[in-house]
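Contributing new records

If you add data, match the layout below exactly. Sequence lines come first and carry their own label; structure lines follow with theirs. Keep one chain per record. Anything else will be rejected by the validation script.
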Amino acid sequence: MSGQWLVAQREIVDQVRSKAFLISSLVMVVLAFGGSLVGGLAATGRLGGGEGERDRIMLVGELAEAAALVPLSEQFELGEAETQEDAENAIRAGSALAALVPDPEEPLGLVVIADEEAPSGLINALTVTPRVKLLQPEAVNWLVARLAGMGFAVVFFMMVLMYGQIAAQKTVVEKQTRVIELLLATVRARALLAGKILGNSALAFGTLVALTLAGVLGLLAGGGAGLVVSDAANQLAAAAGRETLLEVLGPPLGWFLMFFLVAFVMYSALMVGSAATVSRLEDVGNVLTPVTLLIMVPYFMVVMFPDNKTMLEWLSFIPFSAPTAMPIRLVGGDVPAWQVGVALLALVVTTYLAILAGGRIYEGSILRTGARVKLADAVRERRKATR
């Protein structure tokens, strides 16, 4: 076990000493902070004149003459509608942000009607929180779910490819320079592979945590952390029926970190094992193509069909797409606990099989130079070495 940790430590130290690694990591952290900051400012209406934009509010029936609603004209453009149906049609057509409908049973004597989420500016402008009726209620704001899902998918895709390829290229360099022979003189091949996976997984996970913290800090700085996201179950009847952005994204983010760590180990084992079959850096891209496709195809499927709930459900059970599909489902609404458990278990089992496969290929080909080693020959060579 000590050999594995020594190799892992070597992998981490080599990367941390690299200026390219430090600069690229810093750039990613800055971009994560800046993107979250801009998103928070935009979401709270403090960017690009969001607060100054006058949205149209329809006043239905007798409310059009209510003196108490006159101050709203300072923030919104007020329109009149004869019936509630006319006001709802205006909202659906996009010509009005919301409507105020008279209702004697409510504290303010009115109800707010909106499309997908309650307009926070209008709610805050009223002295008492009114009851809200949504024409197209959603558990989570559509834009929030879409951006969060895209963020999960892009980060996973970028991190796995970047760190996986670094591990694969270092494997070929060690083979080219014969350093691998010195390493194998003191450490078993399987321990060497395990150390490489552990070291690169620690680096990738550390970078991901840094990006996450930068994103949260950017959200806090931009004011988006306290942004209220609609809750369809409570119909936004009261403040208790709302959740902040951090409360909505927190659990999916935690699951994403867990899925990411397991999936990264799986892909690292496959990429390092595949890279061991070649002896030239020029051949790394070709030999990694099958593994790269396993990353890219699920990524594009998740990105292209984020609103297809049936497809996302199926993708969340496939180990190669579960790390992005399942967190997206968790952002979009409640997912049964058993489904999350089954998806994670399937990923763990697949990762174990990937480690076995990558280990066999690595052991059977790491000392063979020259032409590319066929997978069958690598497995056969490994069996000879263990006899």
